[in-house]
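Q: Transcriptional regulator, please. Structure only.
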Amino acid sequence: MPLTEMLMWPLNGVPPGSVRALPPPPRPRRGPAPVGPELTSGERCQFFEQMRRAAEQARGPDRFLLRRQALYLSGYDRAADTRHWLAHQQRAERPGDWLTAWLNHRSVAAVAARQGDRDRMSWFIDTVLQNDEAGEAANLAYWAYWVGETTVPQQSDAFIADGSLSSWHGGKLLAHLVAGFVPHDGYVELNIHSVWSLVQVRPHLLRSRAAVRGLRERLPIMLDSGELSQRARRQLESVRYAIRLAEA
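A: Structure for Transcriptional regulator:
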């Protein structure tokens, strides 16, 4: 994840966590200076043209990962036709196995959320994750690998469905997901659902004072928000109740 965050910085303007944790410089720079790496409009245009080209040309099961990553990065394009282009690309995808279909659904939901469409993410949670043990396990394995719960590199996406990462702890993942408890964030419903799912399979995490402190700080803010679905509210209340049980 640190490398991914660094690469995404000039695209989304969000500094990596390791950078945000640094103390402010003792002396400010003289004159105007950017707060992070920036791309010119021409550089951004060239980058996203290349991503679109890569996505359109990456066909076939052996190039699915390349296509998925190119589509993911294309979702950061601010061009007016981005949503339409992405929708067309994702309608053209016809996965032939469970894992590929699952990853495609997740990618579609993630890109849609970044473009301001929350309905697709809600559909993904309600239809592809909830009440599906394999889907829930795949979601947590995907997150765990992405945030660095394991340092063992994987050469394909197969680990997401085969349970090979079942020994990861979960503390780093919980902290990452709770940090995403931001009412207006497009991913917030997925973060909430993933925390709810995580504490069910890793209840020991609620014995960590740091983890509980972070949850206690965010739960009231989230429950007071008018942005959340009823499902998300129920899951937050369930997590709050689980904290009480763990402390009893």
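A: Brief note, in case it's useful. The CA atoms of residues 207 and 246 lie 6 Å apart.
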